[in-house]
Design brief:
By secondary structure, this protein is an alpha/beta fold. It is about 25% helix and about 25% strand. An 8-stranded mixed beta sheet has the order 8-9-11-12-13-14-15-16. It has a 3-stranded antiparallel beta sheet with strand order 1-6-5, with no helix packed on it. A 3-stranded antiparallel beta sheet has the order 2-3-4, with no helix packed on it. Helix 9 links the parallel strand 15 and strand 16. Helix 3 packs across helix 4. The radius of gyration is 20 Å and the shape is globular.
């Protein structure tokens, strides 16, 4: 990807000029108002010369080839390879961020790898990757870069995946998700208090994004919730979350409960016990969800895809490795039940 050396700031979309001369970013619910030379909360968007620019375009904080299960996506071409990349910065401020060295970095601190959209698409094709994932930090904040890369990928038959927290303004949702084939959206908890105090964000825009993706797009959707002991793992909150997902998104949307480990500004909380993950999974299934998984912990039962028709395992997993499969054309070989997803 050596064709890019040092890109000038890239023109940004989704902003307007205010009467006082400042620029208001309209990409995410923060609606940052920026004077000349100021950067938004995410650090990647800046008022430069009276125009909003994206300072991270064409440069990556890192690229890697992963199994798709690491995103995590369990119902989207299991066992396939995905080229993962991100930039720097985030529009949330999660105290428990597991990628904090990237999400809290200024754009110039971590962006060292030149990565033009066309070069990323070619690299994915050359490495036999079925998809490219926008991940590591929040892809919404580099939407222009992600969408240009998605267009380059589609020219080569490569699919695109957004790994996102879903905090995006309504005006930007259609264009952003039109460029995506699949998404794993991080539903960090199910109370606005948790979002405000632990993430410096709000719950409602995320719920609106989830409903938009599930109801108004063809994007394959899976959810992830990082369970933090004592903060978002109560039975009551998990019951409300599971019930909302079942009613508003559908019982077939996969939900992943993953284990927290002490990090960033939340080092005084213990790692999530496997028993907590199993309890959460049981609660979600009791609310009617058919595909609930456990991550960041060894639990064969919680990593297996079970047929909702006959109850037998149709995809076995060990961490991010796919084992035995009992699907033909997306149907269970034992009872012919159609398993939702792309297989």
């Amino acid at each position: 990807m050596s064709e890019v050396t040092q890109n000038p700031p890239h023109p940004a979309r989704w902003w307007r000029r205010l009467e006082d001369g400042r620029l208001q970013c309209e990409l995410c619910p923060r609606l940052c108002r920026l004077g000349e030379g100021q950067r938004g909360f995410c650090f990647g968007r800046m008022n430069q010369g009276g125009r909003m620019v994206l300072t991270s375009y064409g440069r990556s904080s890192g690229l890697a080839i992963d199994p798709i299960e690491k995103k995590p996506l369990y119902h989207y071409f299991p066992g396939s390879r995905v080229l993962s990349f991100g930039t720097a910065g985030c529009n949330l401020g999660c105290r428990f961020c597991q990628n904090w060295s990237i999400s809290t970095a200024g754009a110039q601190d971590r962006l060292s790898e030149p990565a033009a959209p066309a070069a990323i698409a070619r690299a994915a094709a050359e490495q036999g990757c079925r998809s490219v994932a926008f991940t590591y930090n929040e892809p919404i904040i580099f939407a222009e870069y992600a969408l240009d890369t998605a267009a380059a990928c589609r020219e080569l038959g490569i699919r695109t995946v957004a790994v996102t927290a879903g905090s995006i303004a309504a005006a930007a949702r259609p264009a952003f998700f039109a460029g995506m084939d699949a998404a794993n959206i991080d539903l960090k908890g199910f109370s606005d208090k948790f979002y405000r105090e632990m993430c410096l964000g709000r719950l409602e825009p995320v719920l609106e994004t989830l409903e938009f993706v599930a109801r108004e797009t063809g994007v394959w959707l899976e959810l992830t919730t990082l369970l933090i002991p004592g903060h978002n793992d109560s039975d009551e909150e998990l019951e409300r979350m599971g019930g909302w997902v079942a009613e508003r998104l559908g019982v077939d949307v996969p939900l992943h409960f993953t284990a927290f480990h002490p990090d960033h500004r939340l080092r005084d909380v213990c790692a999530t016990p496997t028993a907590t993950l199993a309890r959460a999974r049981g609660i979600a299934r009791a609310q009617g969800l058919r595909h609930v998984y456990i991550g960041n912990a060894h639990d064969p039962d919680g990593m297996t895809t079970w047929c909702p028709g006959c109850g037998r395992g149709v995809i076995e997993r060990a961490w991010s490795r796919v084992g035995a499969r009992h699907l033909v054309d997306g149907r269970c070989v034992f009872c012919s039940e159609l398993i939702p997803g792309h297989f």
